[in-house]
Amino acid sequence: MSDDFPCAWAPLTDELYRTYHDTEWGVPEYDGRALWEKLQLDGMQAGLSWITILRKRESIREEFDQFDPEKLARWTPKRAEKALKNPGIIRSPKKIDALIGNAQAYLAMEDAGEGFADYCWGFVGGAPIVNKWKHFRQAPTSTDWSATMSKDLKKRGFKFVGPTIVYAWAQAVGMVNDHDVTCPRHREVQEMAS
Q1: 121 pLDDT band (50/70/90 cuts)?
Q2: Nearest 5°: CA angle at 185, between 176 and 62?
Q3: Residues of the domain holding 189
């Protein structure tokens, strides 16, 4: 991949950020379980930088049972307290409680026969929204549809799913293509959705 005009938010000098940008960010994700996991990671980011989450992602996955909703939904307060002792994760009682509740909400949707992937993609009409920003700072931090989705998720019992978190997550999972138009990945992820 040419790095002539890549998205400026992922510095060329930061290998972890560049790899994330070049291989994951904006790639359309259609697996409901993977979408749910990524939404949880974006919720954990609230108040922090994304690089903090990237650096801790593997430890977070390990501590939180690989984001298995069935296991997380059964966590007890004692198990949550144990997680708070792990320096490799985001040690926020509110975020851990939200993760447990979000697992329960996800399973409730599944039990009702509502697939999480279909639910999520329904907010963007089933296909990625393709924007044509020249610079990442032109992209919004939330939209009407991310606010609508946020409100609906909250109604279902989800937490840490505000409109800004939902929009950032949608960018990450390719529901929105917000790569700069000068970035080679803009075209590449657009082709992946075709």
Answers
A1: very high
A2: 70
A3: 15-193
Question: Which token pair is 14?
Answer: 């930061």
> Long-range contacts made by residues 183-191, C-beta under 8 angstroms, separation at least 24?
183/5, 183/6, 183/7, 184/1, 184/2, 184/3, 184/4, 184/5, 184/6, 185/1, 185/6, 185/7, 185/21, 185/22, 185/25, 185/26, 188/1, 189/26, 189/27, 189/28, 189/128, 190/128, 190/130
CA distance 36 to 120: 9
> Has residue 9 been placed in a domain?
no
Q: What pLDDT does 48 receive? A: 96
| Two tokens, residue 165 | 């978190």
- Backbone dihedral angles phi then psi of residue 68, each to the nearest 5 degrees: -80, 110
Higher pLDDT, 144 or 134: 144
Measured distance CA(46)–CA(34) in Å, rounded: 19
Give domain status of residue 149, yes or no. Answer: yes
pLDDT confidence band for 1 (50 / 70 / 90): very low
CATH code of the domain covering residue 183:
1.10.340.30
Is position 136 within any domain?
A: yes
